[in-house]
Amino acid sequence: MLLFIDNMIIVVELTTIKAKSQQWSAEGASVPDHIRLLEEKYPDKKIFVLYLAPLIHEERVTKGMLSRLKDYESKLHCLKIEAFLNYSSNFVLKCNPSNQSGLFSVKF
Is the entire prediction scored with pTM above 0.70? Predict the structure, then answer.
């Protein structure tokens, strides 16, 4: 999912895979590749990536993805799905009815 807000893009990458080796095999290359492609397509935007998984494997998966992104500007944050859901329950969206142009757009 891509969330466009002003001069930034928030990317949500989600996996339901729990096992470390399977998570790395499925996501270790694809998540950094998605980020690189977005940086090439939108060089004028700041890109923040939220990687959600049932378990976060810091040593193998997180550090591996970060090492593949070391020469890129994007910021990668890894978070357990459960923690994300807890945080998101505190979000409040305030809309300004007079602003019909919309505050952001979402692409799936």
Answer: yes
